Amino acid sequence: MISLRDIDKTYAHGISKTYVLRKVNFYVAEGEFVSIMGPSGAGKSTLLHLLGMHDSAWTGEYYFLNHAVHKFSKKERADLHKKYIGFVFQSYQLLDNLTVYENLEVPLSYRDIKRNERHSLVCDILDRFQIVGKKDLYPNQLSGGQQQLVAIARAIIAGPKLILADEPTGNLHSDQGREIMEMFRMLNQMGTTIIQVTHSEQNAGYGNRIIRLRDGWVV
Q1: CA–CA distance, 107 with 217 (Å, rounded to integer)
Q2: Residue 128: how many CB atoms within 10 A of its CB?
Q3: With 70 labelled, which of 26, 142, 152, 202 sits at a CA distance of 20 to 30 A?
């Protein structure tokens, strides 16, 4: 599903530059559950955002479902993301001017799904995450944990082929975190490919492989 070849990511500082990712090479097969681990500043979140096609300022080759992403325009990458990828942001990235219900409906609007079917899917996910009572609230009316649940629900609602999750249980209490990881495992068993960034060895244990980063290198 994913192949990265000699990926470099740098930030310029005057005439010098700092490498955030360096000669990153790896392959992720469809149906895998992979964890990216490493110390703070290792490049984990940077790599996840690159995989999610949010970042275009890098060099190397990135193939996703046989598409040469490194040759795509910004719009083509955005279209590919919307069609196949669900992303759980560490900082939630919910739309402040939309209610919980409307935030959950956004990914469905990118697909050819009829309005009544969208309504049914949103209601199902609200029930599944036990947030029915929050559907008319705005993100700033929710706690951090509640926003995290909405962000995860939004990432999976459209049934993406790939879920990218940046510390998905970081703001959840232990029982909620365990439930989310069990849900990820179930989705993976049903065929969804999952790549998560995590500091938790316990969460990494839900997957089948760990990619470790240090100072931008795969170690």
Answers
A1: 33
A2: 13
A3: 152
From the list 193, 183, 129, 128, the residue with the least C-alpha distance to 160 is: 193
Q: Which two tokens stand for residue 215?
A: 């100072």
Which uninterrupted H or E stretch holds 118? Answer: helix 115-128
62 beta partners? 4
Distance CA 160, CA 54 (A): 16
CA distance 7 to 54: 15
The string of DSSP letters for 73-88 reads -HHHHHHHHHHHEEEE
Q: What is the pLDDT of residues 95-150, one digit of tens each?
A: 999 999 999 999 998 888 899 999 999 999 999 999 999 999 999 999 999 999 99
- Angle at the Cα of 34 from the Cα atoms of 84 and 82, rounded to 5 degrees: 15
* 194 neighbors 186 (Cβ within 8 angstroms): no
**What value does the mean pLDDT take over residues 146-171?**
95
How far is residue 219's CA from residue 204's CA, in Å, rounded to a whole number? Answer: 16
Supply the pTM of this predicted model.
Answer: 0.94
Domains identified in the chain and CATH numbers: 2-218 (3.40.50.300)
CA dist 134 to 1, 101, 129, 149, Å? 36, 8, 11, 11
Q: Would you give the DSSP letter of residue 70?
A: G
